[in-house]
């Protein structure tokens, strides 16, 4: 059931205990609303990406917006159709990682996993920048501070997630619905207008349209196509979440998938129709979506509603990464491709590290892009398409192995999808290489290599630990406990108590340096010790200067050498002060000793916390 | 003997074990060379500080260079005389901190200590910038990169000290001698010239001389005096190092002190005579010392020799802070004014933190000053003068309590010195307040407050620990050892062995989460456990999700509540991988459990390192 969660927007496994009743699960409609968040949100930057590429060929180029969009819609159709098949084939939830693991072997599945990891990170960056762009389109005065606003939004989202809030998919239904409805209204109204009702938003902004209308080459169209395909991100989310649908799961999930394709297609085509009808020109600082809202609804409350809806949806879409990535990492950790800490159902602390790591990398990307969506979108597309391609190829394999009725048709469909997405991935990478695609080209193999290194290390360690094999029966050794002592106090007494309870024999040791005051101090301690007479010998260890831990460590080594039968334990008493900053004042000797003993000996190290009360 | 080291340029206590023979100790001459490093080095920036202030009053103002220098020489004489008395009164080595502690109470001694700390830090910054200035005077092309060069030099010095190299005072003799001799030669030769033999160095550099010759007010002269007094820093070093002189210590130290005064005085006066004779004008980018070398020796190899000698001496002078500050901190830590870690004769690691901290703060000052000596010099002077003043006031007290023969005269002398230095301190602070003196005005009280807070905390904790008091006799409790287990391996076996050796009773516990796979895993573990049959029960702890440590912690608390007589120990086995990075793959469960248990229970935590072999 955990595979459910190997994709953005899906709900982490922990959120859905197996005993959840059917009525808690998703219908086609609720499922659509709950899981299509990312896909719908991508409408905010997809069309813009197309227009910006075509603008390089001047007004003439913009004429190709609609054709390109239709091509993308075509690809969308193919993807939806083939994901319907993924749903049927993987009712337990697919996810390119799972599909590849079953049908394409470990290496490929790792590539899929790596691309997913990159997607989660880029999804945060893209959604945040696009959301801020929606806001700055409404309030142009904020445009110059967009990077800071992006970082602020990121901090906000991170803060929410640090508090451990992972909201259920259901929370997404309302904002998604609001957004979709408002976009559809925008399109519907716009279709009844022959000319833009307002161009206030774009007024006074520099047009990025090239003046010299160059000829529109195939490469340019490919570029536009590839960039625009970023509007298809998130189409896979439904296929990964089949188990959270109400029975008949597959049917409902498939229906939701088709509905998603339909709505997304309508929105994309509708928007591009309006773009051509209003002869809309891309300008710096105002999103295409904002201009369209302006043109069809006018520069009034409706305009601001759409901007805010967009902003909020994109923020939520960024948030899904924080829910999804940890779960993917958990899957990888379970398969020994990542440190097991990621698989720990541990206390909040651990979870926080992950959140912070994700936030930091995203922040890096935000700074790298200067808060500009269109720098990040292509990178995002690459990872997504790699995932698509792998999933589809995996499906082809699946059909060939299954050879069920009409398997050739299904295989053909998936194969066609694979080719399209694969080509798109290559095109984006090639055309955007210098603009940042190199990041992906470097990061992806590195990630895969890292996964494999970790995996090899775990295998080796596991073998040497004899994991799973039943070990030889345990035996009891004589136990000698050593207590480092520097003065006489309730803490010392407490330590000696613990030691006598733990050991067959106990020795207190104190380190003495060759200078006068140390010798005096040691002598004083010894006399006080005799006076106390705890029935435990106090051994004085001479030491060269600048050493406290090493003498004790070598003493321990010596004992281990002389008395092979004994198990040596070093018990280090520590004060637990009532105020946190007072930690700085305490236990430093202990830390030094523990460090040395751990480094140079095989002794067990005991730390006794003594609470001041 | 440790007080020896409470001042810049002195040798840390550890460097001079008490058994060192007399022949290893210093004579008046070697002592002078070894301990006057800082004082001599200050000649490189002292006169310059005067000239720069006076330049504000134009050529007319520069005419007062000699009178001001003479006044400073006068103060020098008073200081030397009164430090002769300090030497006599504190044959164990004085140091304003020690003097104040004996005669002026804790609060004042802390002020002295704080000012010393600031001096150490500022000494690094001033010496580095001045050294680089000497270099850039020889190679003007480097002038624009001076900040980077300062940081580079700092990194170099830090690196040397990180490697734990604290060279003995003796290493300073040669460079100090070279520097002093070359300066004296410079002066001697210059006195035989009526006009500068070369002005090549200053050529093409913008003069900082004010054109409109304003009248020279008393304030300006005070300013010049105060800034110039920075040339007196380091005069106290000898008085702090009496114990490292050969018998008769006091006599030899006093002789060295007088010699220091003489040499320093001669250099200061000599240089200022040349300044007036050559009508030298300060320019941006070339030090006054460089111009003088140029003027009297010509722009030849001799000029470069002097620049390099200066550079090297100043670098060494910066280095003394790295030897001296840790020792002062150790003194404060011994008196419970700083965390005890500073007093640990610990292994290199600890020492390194101190070095790095000092380097970071100095780097901050370098950036703050933009690599410009004359921004830092006044700040430096403030701290030094506070130290001077406190030491002298302390001496006045000393004489009044002693009431030896002619005590009035001695007290008068020290009192006079105190007034002079005190006034200078006030003047510098007032005149340079906006230029950075505010830093000191803020930092000093903060440091004192911090010292006192730490001291109070230690006293409280010490009382509650019953430090020194002989504790009640120890008793043995029944020992129950708990071993968290997640799977079966040699590590588990090793842990159970250790536990059975340490405890009267041993229980293995495993945490199980409510989801399916966890239950399956737990069941598998239990059956394997029965098969192994180590004679230790395996307890299954149910847990809400996202928790591994808490269930174990609460289990421990429950036991502690049920069985008051028992001492509970949690034994956490850890794998010690052979490669460092593999630490990332291991022991994370252990860390989480240890954290929770330490936080919520009073149980002893044992960590068993298991080396893969």
TrEMBL record, chains A, B:
TM regions (residue ranges): 68-90, 110-135, 147-166, 172-192, 258-281, 301-329, 350-370, 376-399, 411-430, 436-454
Chief location category: membrane
Region of interest called Disordered, as start-end residue ranges on this chain: 1-22
Compartment list: Membrane
InterPro entries in alphabetical order: AA/rel_permease1, APC_K+_Transporter
Keyword flag Transit peptide: no
Membrane topology: Multi-pass membrane protein
Keywords per UniProt: Membrane, Transmembrane, Transmembrane helix
Pfam families associated with the record: AA_permease_2 (PF13520)
Protein name in the entry: APC family permease
Gene source species: Streptomyces lutosisoli
